[in-house]
Amino acid sequence: MAGNMKDKRFGRAALRRLGCAGGWRRARARARGLWRDDEGLTSVGMAVSIMLCLTLVFSGAQLYRVESASAEIQEVADVAALAAESEVAEFMIAVKLCDATVLSMTLLSATVYGIGIVCACVPPLAALSERLISLANEIRQACDRFYDLATNGLNHLQKVLPFLSAVSAAQVAAANNDGAMDASYYALAVLVPYEGVEIGGASSDSLADLGDKAEGSAQDIRDDAAAVEEAAERANEAKLRGYMADCGCAVSGADGGRCMYERASHLASLAGASNPLYASVDAWSFEVAIARAKAYYQKRKALVPAMGSANPREETNLQCQYAYYSYALAELARADFRVSAGASGEEVTGSIPKLFRSTPELRESWAYGSVRFPVSVSDGVMHGYAGCPGISGATQMTVVSYCDSDAVQTCSVCEFTIGSFGGVGNASSRAPTGFEYHYEKMRQASEDYKAAVNELAPLKESVKDKVNPIMDAIGEVIADVGTRRISAEPPGRGGAIVMMVNAATNAADAGFESLFVGGDATLGARAAVSASALVEDAAHDNGNVITSLLDGVGEGGGAATGAARVVLDCWSTLLRVYADGQEALLGAVRDGLDSLSLGSLGGLGSWAADKMTSVIEAAGLTPANLNALKPALLNTGHVASSDSGSFTVAFKQVKATALSASAPATGLFPGLSTALSDAVTNAVSGTTITIAEIELPVGGATVPIELTLPPEAGEAAGGFIGQCIDKVGSAVSSIAGERPWQ
Description:
The protein is of the alpha+beta class. Helix content is 57%, strand content 10%.
């Protein structure tokens, strides 16, 4: 290695010796001067570098512009796909609005039928009942009309929905025809599937059956309820009379305050629990009067021995009273008057005994052959008591009926006769000063009460037998409500596919001319595809959209009264059944019933209201699915795979072969062109399509259900859509084999 270095040094030294060293240095310096200037001036190298950088910058910018212009079509296609499927989403909102209307009107009719029958059970509401049932019929007919109009309108709209989606997508594409490259976008949106399923056809007879039952039985129910009310009124009046005779007059001061309570206190010094005072008939019962009478006669009987008299006639009267009180206690001991709760309300069994008030009544009572007085064996003279001074010889006890025999003799001392005993209660039962007077009034009231109450039972059963089938029919309507709902399987339920072309052919450097990039290239037609589909979004305001549209009907009654007010109040609440289900339905029924005065003596109104409420509670109506449907971008393959129609089959084949020369591209468009032309023919001019109108037979309100059309979605748009079909078809042909379908 050292040898080599020596050789190199030797070589340079030899050159110097030979005189060539100066020429070599000058040549190298001149070469360096071309690329470097120590004074800071631009050199050839710097100029070349700058030119190269500028060329790369402008080339990159132009490439970016071309790439951006080419890629922008995909973004526009995505937006157009969302716009196309948005029409389907709006259609589904219209479907839910119609479904909510049919559901609420069906339930409203059933509810009003039920409330009408409840009112039929309350005689003061008989006229309201008749009007409510009539309105229920009108609501049912209005619901049938709306159902037919809505299904026809939605079916018509389904036919033009592909056209509306195509218009919406084309307009979105056309709105992007701006920018430096002067784009000319044409979009063709195709719904997958292209045709919808016919809406309607379902039928249910349950509501009509309910109407027939309600109309057929309502008048009989009203008649029977009136009879129940009349019997209940008689029962209440009889009970009030019994109360007043027992202790009510002492409370109110009527008849000078005289009653069983007052007489027992005055005549027998009866007080405390043995002689209670009731301030209201509601807390009182006939059993109270029976117990008071028992206590009274027991006390009067106990007082007789202490009232003995030396006068035979007076003593006879006292002994007859004693016998009468004993007889009364025996009668009351057999009293079995009972008021109990039965299946149809109160039932009364037994009776309160009638105490004889005269000799003829004595002869009709058991005392005539049972109560005994002493009779002389020797002469057959009957006496009022065993210690009578007129008795001579032996005596024996003989029933009082012996006084009516031919063999009887009247005692000249005590002067006892059958009238002596039979007339004990005569005076006290015929004047307000006597206890028996008020007792008899109470007893007669108990008989009237018993007759009226026991008359109620079969009448109530008759009403219930007629009401129960109607209430059961309401339950059947609610259970069957799902058979007549409006649901849709529209075009585009699987999604929408958009084929987009930019038909503009521009110079590649248009708007960006530069000497650094050649300007002879042309940016030709570009194409892209996109797809979107509806996805559920738990939007909490969807229910509000439904109810807010229909709230005008419920609030349009103004100063409506009577049947109209009941219907509108129910309607306002039932509109929320679609979102809230069972809770809103039960609330509507309760609101409707609470708005009425159902109190009646017969109690049938409250019973029918409870029956109806229990039927509703057992229905278990579930809310509808209110999740909003919103368009979202989706792979075109997924959308195309959701349908087996001719378009999707061709589209999948085209996509699979990347529009090769042999691809059946032309098969994509002729059928679409014909179908869209037919849709254009059926499309309506204007900015909205009225699907149906809600016409409630009260309040005079009419609410339209409409769908807003894309701007310019009239017949004039048909030519534009046809142009889009042509442009997309020609673009497919022009780029076939050159660029894959994106």
